[in-house]
Amino acid sequence: MDKATQEYVDAHLEETLDDLKRLTAQPSISAQRVGVLECAEMVAEELRGAGFEPAIMPTADPGYPVVFADSGHDSPKTLLFYNHYDVQPPDPLDEWDSPPFEPYEKDGRLYGRGISDDKGPFIARLAAIKALRATKGDLPLRVKFCLEGAEEIGSPGFHDFVARHADALKSDMCVWEGGGVNWDGRPLITLGVKGLLYVELECRAASRDSHSSYAPTVPNPAWRLIWALASLKDAGERIKLRGFYDRIRPALDEELAALRRLPDTDDEFRRDLGVEMSLGEATGFEFRRRMIMEPTANVAGVVAGYTGQGAKTILPAVARVKMDFRLVPNQDPQEVLTSLRSHLDEHGYSDVSISVLTSEHPARTPIGDPFVKVVADTARTVYGSEPYLQPSMTGTGPQYPVQEILRVPVASCGVDYPGNRIHAPNEHIRRDYFRLGVLHTAELIEALGRGV
Amino acid sequence: MDKATQEYVDAHLEETLDDLKRLTAQPSISAQRVGVLECAEMVAEELRGAGFEPAIMPTADPGYPVVFADSGHDSPKTLLFYNHYDVQPPDPLDEWDSPPFEPYEKDGRLYGRGISDDKGPFIARLAAIKALRATKGDLPLRVKFCLEGAEEIGSPGFHDFVARHADALKSDMCVWEGGGVNWDGRPLITLGVKGLLYVELECRAASRDSHSSYAPTVPNPAWRLIWALASLKDAGERIKLRGFYDRIRPALDEELAALRRLPDTDDEFRRDLGVEMSLGEATGFEFRRRMIMEPTANVAGVVAGYTGQGAKTILPAVARVKMDFRLVPNQDPQEVLTSLRSHLDEHGYSDVSISVLTSEHPARTPIGDPFVKVVADTARTVYGSEPYLQPSMTGTGPQYPVQEILRVPVASCGVDYPGNRIHAPNEHIRRDYFRLGVLHTAELIEALGRGV
């Protein structure tokens, strides 16, 4: 890669990491509406420092604005960066080795809530842009930034925002958040997200809890929910909603080939979580295929009656369960919801209500897209090793509106590595991977500018 | 009934209710070990006031002594009174109209935690004894009192206590706690208790909660517990444990006849609880038969994962459920436990652990027992109406050791009425039913003394 750019990046790395620490020190907890607007202002300031004239644009909820910036270059191609500036709540606080909003570096790692997800990737991209502006005089193509403030709470309003501002967001390709390297240090590029339908089911059978001696005649909503749930997925993990699997696009040959090239990580994964055996005893390729390609019906939480210490002979009045369905192309969260309602009704559980908490479509960019080739080629150059292409994250993000409305290919590449503990205590980035992420971004922008 | 005794009871009723209020003002919350020993001392003092020389006798846990007293009369017959001096926790405090341990009277009702369950019945019995001693010069038979301090936490150690002190407790019949009148004011005499097996089931699948995107490969203990529970009882309320129903003694003709004579209360019951329809759409006789004669498998509580507001995409590491099985003669809690373990193992849920929190046998006294006739005849005299005989309570108490070790008939009669809200806020007794309970006890002692 370009020597001058690399030298600039290295010469300014401390400065860049100082920027990152300052931004990380600003809490921006969307779930608690803590510091979000203040952080939006800081993000805008960072963008101004890299030569942009950003706008803080409202979404349906004025508490979660999008920070948008456009380099405005007259260029045949436009690259859009998606990031978010909100972070997960830092709980549990007592499991952090130091306060989550007082970032610090130790042994080549920088710690802090949001430093990896997703402030580090944003600052890395700005650092690449600053380096190119400094060493090349200007950027070789038009660059836009779109930073969301509510990603960690399911991106409410983002779809509408993209639809309303499709002209401003117009671009030819999008670099997403996430991505970086795998456990072995080889670059990892992911090309999609799973969809999500997150619902809360509730069953109420009486106006108040009663004595469990009434169990011969009083309906127990916990039992009703247990039976309803057992009808939704069998012990072989087969999801019984009518049509649930019908719309799934079968895995493409190139997706399966990409999955085959990914390394085996299931042993390490199980050890880390203290899990004896994967579902279906899946290992190696089959473990990856399930993680990346399969939809799920997960019980995220369930509660009814007395859950404290010891015995209390109670018959609960109400029972609740939180469920998330992860969806893969071409499943549709609205269809799954309709099917869930029908299933419950047909199985005699019309008394079980459904509230939708989050809904997001799955999205994937074809592995064969020319943009993916540029991302992979530049990664190979910078990292000096063959990149992994992962057809999808196992998780969810609002890629669908970008693909559906802007109709552009999307790839994740950045500064992460699998050990960085996003959403968990002691979230961190590694300095070496951060530096490589900056260099890769600069190389990618250059390559896209050359029309490679 | 005897005029002099009645006049004495009425003349001393205020004094008696003052004693009751004083005893009720002393918290004795066994679940929290609050005031239990202090209350035992007060109970002993009350017994001394009625001419006894009580002993405070330790059980296996010295925090929960039994208060025992024996009138010591040289008599062919001995009557044992069972009561308990501990009370349920007063929570939820904010639903009480006044502080639970500051008893007061309003509109003929006396309010306070434990005033009905079970301090009122105890004081009523003492009042009857004082009246007989005052008007007759002495008691016509030997009377013993046994007051437990841990009934509300499942009577741990009571079985052992009865076995160890069988000689001291030796008697010919036992008047239990509970009993009084039904909604219509006619006396209600109950002749048994259901057994109880209270267990906590736990399933753990990982060392910590993880991200729900891992659901394709990480076992979810909430799902496992849901499937295990669904295998235990079907949606038709049939309990699937092998042999669960085999040992149940079929209802006797006289039990069914007694059930038929009980009034219909299911409409009122459902209205009170806000329940639309009873299980099996049971009404009238069938409603009573189920409540009194059927065993249950109840989910008292279940918890796993995230149960707070909003969405959290988590895959729980552990799931727990609390279950109580109410048992009827001749079911055995140990057999049910063994069957539960086998069932889980055979259905592939060896990873679901079982902890036993409470275990109690069912017990019933035959309706045709001569003692029951005396209780009923004296109730008819005092209340002026035909008594109801209920073959069993719907709930549980430690009658089994009394029947099994002391081998005596047991009947509940006392001062309660169905509206007195035991275990709930605003627990109370009615002054008129309390007075009738005192009179009935005196009449019963007299009759037993006459050898009727």
Key phrases:
Alpha-Beta Plaits, Aminopeptidase, 452 residues, 2 domains, alpha+beta, homodimer, globular, 14 helices
Q: What this model shows, in words?
A:
- The structure is a homodimer of 452-residue chains.
- With 452 residues, chain A is an alpha+beta fold.
- Chain A has 14 helices and 20 strands.
- Chain A has a six-stranded mixed beta sheet, with helices on both faces. The first copy, chain A, has a four-stranded antiparallel beta sheet with strand order 13-15-11-16. A three-stranded antiparallel beta sheet of chain A has the order 4-5-20.
- Chain A starts with a helix and ends with a helix.
- The relative contact order of chain A is 0.19.
- The model of chain A has no long low-confidence stretch (mean pLDDT 96).
- Chains A and B meet through strand 12, helix 7, helix 9, helix 10 and strand 13 of A and strand 12, helix 7, helix 9, helix 10 and strand 13 of B.
Shape of chain A: globular
If you average the pLDDT of chain A, what whole number results?
96
Number of domains of chain A: 2
CATH architecture of the largest domain in chain A: 3-Layer(aba) Sandwich
**How much beta of chain A, percentage-wise?**
15-25%
- The DSSP helix count of chain A reads 14
CATH evolutionary superfamily of the largest domain in chain A = Zn peptidases
How far the N terminus sits from the C terminus of chain A, by CA atoms, comes to 14 Å
Oligomer: homodimer
**CATH-assigned fold name of the largest domain in chain A:** Aminopeptidase
Considering residues with a beta carbon less than 8 A from a beta carbon on another chain, report the largest interface and each chain's count. A-B, 77 and 77 residues
Helix coverage percent of residues of chain A? 25-40%
CATH level 1 name of the largest domain in chain A: Alpha Beta
Count the E strands of chain A: 20
- Spans of chain A with pLDDT under 50 lasting ≥5 residues? none
Strand line-up in the sheet with most strands of chain A: 1-2-6-3-7-19
**Largest beta sheet of chain A, briefly?**
6 strands, mixed
Q: Which structural class best describes the helix and strand composition of chain A?
A: alpha+beta
Radius of gyration of chain A, taken over Cα atoms and rounded to an integer in Å: 23 Å
